[in-house]
Amino acid sequence: MKKLTETDIKKLISESKARELYYARTIVEMFPQSNGIHVRYKIEHTDFAGHIERSNEYDLLPKDRLCIQVPCPNRDCTQGYFSLTSEADKCLRYGKEVSGKMRCHGKEDFKYYDHNGFTCDTTIDYIITPL
């Protein structure tokens, strides 16, 4: 079996993100009785420049696709993002608030140090509430 290169891995991750969005159905198709969801999150990352916090909140309405992909703000992170789609699905399926914390699955790319990098330490705290 051929060993995957860094370029191969980046391509696979990019294709996976695109596939998730392409195949996402609307909320009304999956959950006809739903009025949608409210998504709120805060991303935290610390690097040499200091501590970075970003937050956002918005509603996904019945005609919106059920796909939540939040990019990692770490500029050294390669192909990192947070997929909250399965968490949103739980919220809609059970009609209850879902909250939690995730760690980015990307890697900090330190090519200039001649090694493969470290796992990205960026985290996201999220709360998804049914409308």
Description:
With 131 residues, this protein is α+β, with helices and mostly antiparallel strands. The chain has one domain (6-130). The protein is built from three helices and nine strands. It has helices at 6-23, 27-30, 85-94, and strands at 37-47, 50-60, 69-71, 77-78, 81-83, 98-103, 107-108, 118-119, 123-130. The strands form three sheets. A four-stranded antiparallel beta sheet has the order 2-1-9-6, with helices on one face. It has a three-stranded antiparallel beta sheet with strand order 4-7-8, with no helix packed on it. It has a two-stranded antiparallel ribbon with strand order 3-5.
Write the layout of secondary structure elements.
Elements: H1 6-23, H2 27-30, E1 37-47, E2 50-60, E3 69-71, E4 77-78, E5 81-83, H3 85-94, E6 98-103, E7 107-108, E8 118-119, E9 123-130
Antiparallel strand pairs: 1-2, 1-9, 3-5, 4-7, 6-9, 7-8
